[in-house]
User: What shape does this take?
Amino acid sequence: MRIPAFGLGTFRLQGQTVIDSVTQALELGYRAIDTAQIYANEAEVGQAIAQSGVPRDALFLTTKIWTENYTRDRLLPSLRESLDKLGADAVDLTLIHWPAPGNPVPPEEYLAALAEAKALGLTRQIGVSNFNIALTRRAIEILGPGEIATNQIELSPHLQNRRLTAYLAEAGIHVTSYMTLGYGKVLEDPVVQGIAERLGSTAAQVVLAWALAKGYSVIPSSTKRENLAGNLRAIQLHLPEDALAAIDALERGGRLVDPEGLAPVWDA
Assistant: This one.
């Protein structure tokens, strides 16, 4: 299975807010939804999907295992709990959310449990999130080549992770970009704004189209129908080569997410 190029993120959205966001996104044509155990919104995501009338087989659902569930005796039960909340027999993709180097559970244990979840049909694909090169290489050694569908990482024009993305391409692992709009900071970049004005598009569309042109999947979130619709139109936006090069030049190491105890030593 391929990882959809465009999906809806639900980080920090809870209660009626996430129900409304998912409902509107599905109405607009989104068919990939990204959630996680720690987001505490899987039940609401499931409710919105159930009420939408969109067939389950038309959707691509991703969730992520939280660190407290990394032990072999917790991972599978926690994923089954996630499935119950989502109202699904299986998800399409399950990720290890953070490598959490301070966590006492070794990757050999939680990755074996993740592989078992796939073998049992609880998830169709498996992957990782926020893994650096060394940890991704170790995960490949444990799971075998071809088993890791994606590495979901923070990535934007201000944080392009070139060493890591080059390694992932070489290893045949797809890149899913989160925080692609950089909490809105990237949208304020004059280079991005200039390109948007020239192309008659929004700054968000320019940034998302740049990531899509790189071959990455994107999962932007929004609570506003107008922004949800506008973001989706990035799929049709073609950026000329000079625009792509100008955005490539915006790298500044602008990492926004670096939680102590969860994050690895990032690749320079």
User: Anything to note?
Assistant: The beta strands are 8-9, 32-34, 60-65, 91-96, 123-129, 148-154, 174-178, 217-218. The two ends are 31 Å apart (CA to CA). The chain has a mean pLDDT of 97. Residues 38 and 66 are 6 Å apart (CA to CA).
